Amino acid sequence: MRVDDLIYDDVPDSLKDISMVIGMDNFIELIKVVGGTSVYFPSENNMLRAVRNRRIKEEFSGDYKKISRMYGISEVQARKILRRNCNSNKR
Which of 34, 36, 41, 87 has the least C-beta neighbours within 10 A? Predict the structure, then answer.
């Protein structure tokens, strides 16, 4: 018996959605890589936060009010994002 012998009907109900979305071949690879561990998948909004922060850094021209309006965040939040990104680049 090998994990490669798995078919969709063998997959527990709680994981059927994942196997359908990524396909059985990828699901089997996922089992091989992370099987037996707990894996957390962040929400789409959480993942997109990194994209937003990167774009803020790339598009920032010195005007905190403008960048905060562009992204619907406060000036304080824009300053924190830019400060964090600036500090992480120094490493």
Answer: 36
Over residues 14-71, the pLDDT tens digits come to: 999 999 999 999 999 999 999 999 999 999 999 999 999 999 999 999 999 999 999 9
Helix 64-71 × helix 75-89 angle, to 10°: 100
Strand (E) or helix (H) holding 16: helix 13-22
Residues 57 and 50: beta-carbon distance below 8 Å: no
- What SS3 state is found at 59? helix
Q: Which amino acid is at 7?
A: I
With beta carbons less than 8 A apart as the criterion, state whether 8 and 24 touch.
yes
Phi, psi of 72 (to 5 degrees): 65, 35
Q: What is this structure's pTM?
A: 0.63
